[in-house]
Amino acid sequence: MAKNKEYSFFSIVVLALALIALFVVTQFFTNKSTRALNEGNKQAVATFLINNSIQELVNLSFDLQSKFKDRNLKVNSTRISQLKDSLTMLGYNTDIITSYTSSNSHEISNIIRNIIEEQLNISESILNTHISGNVQEKNKLIDSLYKVSPGDKVYANCLTLQAFLRKNLQETLTRNSEQAGQLSLYNKILALFAIITILVMSTIIIKRQSQQLKLIAELQAAEQAALKSKNAKDEFLANMSHELRTPLNALIGFGNLLKDTPLNKQQREYVDMVRSGAQNLLNIVNDVLDLSKIEAGKLKMVHKPFNLYHLFNRLERMFSNAINEKGLHYSSYIESKVPEHVIGDIERLQQIFVNLIGNAIKFTNEGEIKVTANVVWIDEDDKYYKLGFTVKDTGIGIPKDKVAAIFERFEQLEQGVQRQYGGTGLGLTIAKNLVERMGGTISVFSEVNEGSEFNFTCILEKNTNPVSEEQSFITIDKLPEGKVLIVEDNKANQILLKHMFGKYGLKPKIIDNGLEAVNLLEKETFDLIFMDIQMPEMDGYTAIGILRNEKQISTPIIAMTAYVSETEIIKCKNAGFTDYISKPVDEQLLIKTTASYLENIQNNNHHTLNYLYELVGNDPDTVGEVVQAMKNQWELDKAELIEAFSQQDIGKVKKILHRLKSTFSPLGAEHPVYKAIGKCNFTTMENKTLDLQQCTSFIDDIEKEINV
């Protein structure tokens, strides 16, 4: 392929140079032919002028010769003037002949000039004798003129000159014709070669263009294949995440539940081992997914305020159990210049620390772990700080031949007993990538059996509007009253969620898939819905689309899935889910989220149902029964109202509207539903046609208020 490209390129260059050379040669002959043609034209014009002058010259010469031979010539002043003018004209024509003849004919023209000059001299002398009256001298001069006979000589030499000029003109015209023929031939050759060159170059260009288009198509196909492969990889990782997180959700959840039950020492040890193994497996899954997002360029860094000092406190609490179990000493130090309130990505910064501190604890059997923070440089104008962080341990250290590659993916200490510590070898790779994304660098100094010191930097912005103090976790003993529906196909997760909610006094309704959810929600209402994404019969995305778009259900629905990518979260929000909780489910986050939504719903209900609550003595169960009864009656009345409109039965419409007022009277006269019924403008109609569109608008208004 490369040789063909070189050959075609060389061919184009050769053809182009040949075409240029042919243009130069043709231009040369064109210029030569043009010059010859110009010379021929000049020569033709000169020949024409000379011929005219020769004719006048011969005529004047004969005429003057005849006049001056007359011995009885009568002269006066006028006659003398006329003869002198004729002599001047004779000399002028001689000059024209001499000036327009070429170098080849100068010899003949000079002979003619000499003859004319002799005739002029004799004629002027005769004219002078006429004036002076010297007859004897005049006769001698006339005799000389007879002897010279200039007219005959001029005539003979002029004939010779004309013949010579005609011959030269003919040769010039013949030569011009030959050059014109050569020029025509070269022009034809040029035109033919130009056509051939254009065709060849066009063929080469078209061929190369087709090869380029083919290459583009191949590249597009390769790009599609790469995209397909990437999508397959993303799909595989998403499926792997789901398949691993689903059982992990049960392992971690039931482990946490089991931990809170009465256990003996051995059982507690077993439970801790199960929880630790499940958590380690979850960390591995998270590492793989994080690395995949980093490589795909999809890892997003957030920019939000946080308290750096609180982060250090949180890290100490997070690792306190592991530190105590191994009998290690943990200390932290923050330089006074380090700002407390900063702006950056606290989650990713914490992830870096978790990797480094976790490794330090894992590879340290005795001694201490020390974490420090200091200022590298400060940009006071833009309020940016480059901070340096250190995680130092007294562990087993890293061999010198491993230090250079310690941040490479899947790189671990492979020798001997070091392998017992496990791990994927991705933690430091991810930490390095995160540090670089935050504008910093990471390095390590280590000595075998002496410990390791990891140093990294990152750029954070100082927050001039400090965030509020970190709040302690709110302890929730009992969840607010509310009807909660869980749509989850995994039986283990169903049992887990049932017990999780049961700890806080809530008994959710649990069903297996999205299809059951759609059918159930047509008949029954709930305050809050948790829905898995991947389910048999009907998945979560299909179900949420039907519930939001077709059924117009506005109940908060929270996606609960093992898919945890940023793309999946956005997809959930765009599909219509109110919120998102990832698996394995964090119990505190689940309960906190549930409490928040149920409290909001309860507050809204109290706001819109104040009259009803007062009416039944603030009994939420009774309120629920009354509201459900009103909804059931509304469904019946709505159907009758539509039928009455279609039958144009005004009397029946009035009865139904009156019944609706009675149905919703427990809400109070100020409730929007009751007001909407009172405002309907078709209640006073008599003997008029009922507009079905008005009925539809009225029903939509009531439905909206009921949904609220």
Automatic annotation (TrEMBL):
Instruction: Kindly list the residue ranges recorded as spanning the membrane.
Output: 7-29, 185-206
CDD domains attached here? HATPase_EvgS-ArcB-TorS-like, HisKA, REC_hyHK_CKI1_RcsC-like
Enzyme class name: transferase
**Keyword flag Kinase:** yes
Its Enzyme Commission number(s) read: 2.7.13.3
Query: Which keywords annotate this record?
Result: Kinase, Membrane, Phosphoprotein, Transferase, Transmembrane, Transmembrane helix
- Full protein name: histidine kinase
**Gene that this polypeptide is encoded by:** rcsC_4
